[in-house]
Design brief:
Elements: H1 7-10, H2 26-39, E1 40-42, H3 43-51, E2 59-62, H4 66-71, E3 78-79, H5 85-92, E4 99-102, H6 110-120, E5 125-129, H7 131-137, E6 142-144, E7 147-149
Parallel strand pairs: 1-5, 2-3, 2-4, 4-5
Antiparallel strand pairs: 6-7
Length: about 170
């Protein structure tokens, strides 16, 4: 037999830090997250698109320094340091092809700065969340000056033994 909740248990709890600012209305939340997906992609989605073979429909741009590029980069990426975007983007990139920028990782905003510079030049652009750090941490192959490398996936960033995180 079930009983109705008591008045005390059905009353709203005092707002803690999570709900102190109320969640947005569903329509506002949908608009926000739709917009977020127009500006961002992630390592797993980029890797899956590149692994599918053929033209993924975008070009990946590594906006880090030459030293960082030599240390490791996404296979097939174009090397275009952020500071050189205004000078070199016209020679290296086709404005009709969307661009995905990345830098070191979540603690670096270099990919956002490069994306801004490219957008101001008329490119359609997304930032790859996680950057090179999460590319490596997810166990994906990368290129260095010595050839291709791969490290074991970090179980905190990718499910052990699974090809897909399920999101």
């Amino acid at each position: 037999m079930t009983t109705a909740p008591s008045a005390a248990s059905s009353a709203p709890a005092a707002a803690g830090p999570v709900l102190r600012a109320a969640p947005a209305a569903p329509a506002e939340a949908a608009a926000y997250f739709r917009a977020s997906l127009a500006f961002h992609t992630d390592v797993s989605d980029v890797a899956a698109a590149l692994a599918a073979g053929g033209d993924p429909g975008f070009v990946v741009v590594d906006c880090r320094s030459t030293e960082a590029w030599d240390q490791g980069h996404v296979p097939g990426a174009v090397h275009l340091p952020t500071a050189l975007v205004p000078e070199r983007a016209g020679r290296l990139l086709d404005r009709s092809v969307p661009v995905v920028t990345y830098c070191w990782g979540p603690g670096c905003n270099g990919a956002a700065r490069a994306a801004l510079a490219l957008a101001e030049l008329g490119h359609r652009v997304k930032e790859m969340l996680g950057g090179f750090e999460y590319w490596v941490r997810e166990g994906l192959a990368f290129e260095t000056g010595q050839g291709q490398e791969r490290r074991a996936a970090d179980p905190l960033t990718a499910p052990a033994g699974a090809g897909d995180c399920g999101c």
